[in-house]
């Protein structure tokens, strides 16, 4: 198995394999690289004749063989893509298991003029490639499209800024990657917005915090900030926005708990005369975020933060031990916390 950054490097050199197995949580990157392979391998004038899409949920062996063994027209190569190839997962029904075994055998004798690409999307970011994918990757090119993190994400995002001829320093780049949702579609949109906003000058941290659409961590920061200002109505608005985005009540509650625990540690650090640099290193926070939380911590006393954590834990215990209305309990938590 290789990662998609290695695949992209190979495609830049026009190094194309005969068969690809793609899997991962980043469907946009999967489709983008499929299009790159098609652009390299198939003439646009004859795309309709040399590019075939098959639905992996309904496909059978005969359809796949027919698509792969039909000779390309006015081209050296043809591309066959099987999307939603869920027969590559470990646990499937008997019909899909049969297709999986047949495909595994057929790939060994795939015609050289055909490029076969099969892919399926992970159900969540924690999912790993199936044993079937590991096995077939011994005779095909297996590529895992995981969401990038840390320095790898920063490196990828830097290339997007470079493509737009926009300079961004390391500190601002790290802040941007920390602030934006880890989704390449969203990242590209936010880069475009930021470049337009900072037209003719360098990007600043303030630009990023003002322009970039906040991810859920920033929403939680703002929610807690409204609690510190005793504005429960505004905090409830953010709660409803998060629920509308599809966040569960339990995940929102965990994020609020984490925010208060961080505030507690930062409050202790401030009272112990620790520097921003020391705390950002100890708590693994970006210095700009740490500075904002230091300011936020001044709006609470240690006792208020402790009480807020207790209220969160009580709400968590209630949600786990009884059949209450989760949304109502979260609303009550916000109202109570705002009056601590």
Notes on the protein architecture:
It comes from Clostridium aestuarii. This is DNA polymerase III subunit delta. It catalyses: DNA(n) + a 2'-deoxyribonucleoside 5'-triphosphate = DNA(n+1) + diphosphate. The chain has 340 residues and is of the alpha/beta class. It folds into three domains: 2-145, Rossmann fold (3-Layer(aba) Sandwich); 150-211, Orthogonal Bundle (Helicase, Ruva Protein, domain 3), CATH 1.10.8.60; 216-338, Zinc Finger, Delta Prime, domain 3 (Up-down Bundle). The protein has 17 helices and six strands. The chain has helices at 4-12, 27-41, 47-50, 61-69, 94-106, 131-136, 150-163, 170-179, 184-197, 205-211, 216-228, 232-245, 249-271, 276-283, 287-297, 302-321, 326-338, and strands at residues 2-3, 19-24, 51-55, 78-83, 114-121, 141-145. A six-stranded parallel sheet has the order 1-6-2-5-4-3, with helices on both faces. Strand 4, helix 5 and strand 5 (114-121) form a beta-alpha-beta unit. Helix 1 runs parallel beside helix 2 and helix 14 (276-283) crosses helix 15 (287-297). The longest helix is centred in the C-terminal third of the chain and has 23 residues, at 249-271. The protein is elongated, with a radius of gyration of 25 Å. It starts with a strand and ends with a helix.
